[in-house]
Amino acid sequence: MFEVPPPKRIDEANAIVIDQQRLIRDTLKSVLVQAGVRDVTVCSNAFEALSACRSKEFDLIFVSFNLNLDKDGFHFLEELKFKSYAKNTTGIVFLSADTDKGLVNSVVEMQPDDFWLKPFDIKGISRRLNFMLEVKQTLHKPLFFADELDYSRAIYYADRLLALTELKEFHPRLLRLKGQCLMTIKEYGDAEKHYREVLKKYRYNWVNIGLAKSLLKQEKFTEAQELIDKLKLRADTRCGIHDLLGQHYLQKGQYEKAYVEIIEAAKLAPRNLERNKRTWELARLNHDPMGQREATINMAKYAKNSIHDSPELTLNVIRSNIDLANYVEESEAGIYLNEAQKYLNELTTNPKLYRKLKSQIDVINARLHSAKGEKGKADAILRQLHKNVSGDVENNLEYNFDLIKAHHEAGNREACIKLLNDSKELVNGNMFSGDILNKYIEQELDERSHIHFTPKELTEMAAAYHTQQKYSQAMRMLDQAFRLSPRNEKLAMNIMKVAASATEKGRLDNDQKRTVSKAIMMLNKVNLVAEEAKLYAFFREQIGEINELDLLSTELA
Questions:
Q1: Given a cut of 50, is residue 555 above it in pLDDT?
Q2: Which is higher by pLDDT, 150 or 98?
Q3: Domain stops at, among 110, 138, 166
Q4: What's the average model confidence in pLDDT over 499-510?
Q5: Vertex 194, ends 190 and 200: CA angle to 5°?
Q6: Which range marks the domain in which residue 535 is found?
Q7: Quick check: 442 and 474 in contact, CB under 8 A?
Q8: Fewer CB near the last or first residue (10 Å), C or N of the chain?
Q9: How many CB atoms lie within 10 A of CB 8?
Q10: Are 459 and 520 contained in the same domain?
């Protein structure tokens, strides 16, 4: 039989307190010593604390959110979990004077054992500390096996403790652990039964979310939907249920629905870097350059001083600004190009960093030239880059994606398609890449093979054709632009304007009707200001009704 090491006695436990305020450190140390903890380490910043965690295993960790000297407490706690310095058997308490909903939601996702608000009520935190110590002592065996990834044994010992009525106050924690273990080993039917039984006694948010997840995993969609609709209305379950739905739709390949849900979860808990990354990938796949820009900005902002921090994140912010500049009208494009240039200037002021990122910066400079209409300069940079590209970026997916865009925007179609095919092999050979990237590559191959200009360029060409009363050509350009930018209201209104003009000269063909129909569907979903709504109504009246059979016949063809 596997021997389980006994839980440490309280006087054997090691504790660490991380807070920049000396008064807080001293207060907590005093409370811990009074509770019987003899070994208490205090640190004023995350750097000191990480050094301490490398040399000693701590049983109790108290971490403050506000660690201004380096990283914040949220990212420090994330790093501790990532490096296995904090486990199920570890007592973790998060300390903060901030009750911002975004922070609270983010911390709740990290599942600390408790959250203590500053300033402290000494009697209150002493009572909560003693309870947490008792929890870790009493629940030691199931927690230990959960740390060992032996979930069946964890469930076995949880059930043994649940059978003891004298441990009733610990039952909620045991029930939560058991539910998580059942879901991890994919016993979804048993998990559903478990959560339904728990709901007869408790109404905790994790019970409802666990039940919803077990129903979705079994594809019991009708039952799940009824529960999900209720949970979206509850403040304590809203973030978790949006995240759950996002993951569900991702697994089903329903990327637009997944994007909608993950955006909502990211708004509610903005510090989750993995979710922000997923938002960015889905924004790119769903042709939402504004959402892509917001996601990269959030990634760079919330990764600051964390284990995720990297100049690559700033490069992604620059790239997303250039992407957006290529989607909007000339009057707006300058704003995003200037922002991209500002971030780029900050990177290039560091000589060591510039040398490391030179190939990537060269590609960005080529894209900036193309966005300003200086395609000759862009092409010259790309030709020189082909001779001098550094080997460390050849397997960098984001660099390759950016290089593809640079060649496409400079008019190098063959180089663009070749790089896309190479990237497809690179994605397939990367065990950490997911279905989203594979789908994105397929989409890029299709679109860049058939559409040779950016949405901004296509819109400008359409405007010129419209002025010349060449409405068929204008509609063709706008259709291509709208395929690349299906969320662009101004572009949709331009389609309506050209279609109205074309109708005065004759009937729209079925392809043009399909383009107009897509624009109408998009505009019907947005809140137009009074003047735009009036203009939209005028265009619709000019165009007249569109026969759905005509659209169907085009689709079948």
A1: no
A2: 150
A3: 138
A4: 88
A5: 150
A6: 455-556
A7: no
A8: N
A9: 14
A10: yes
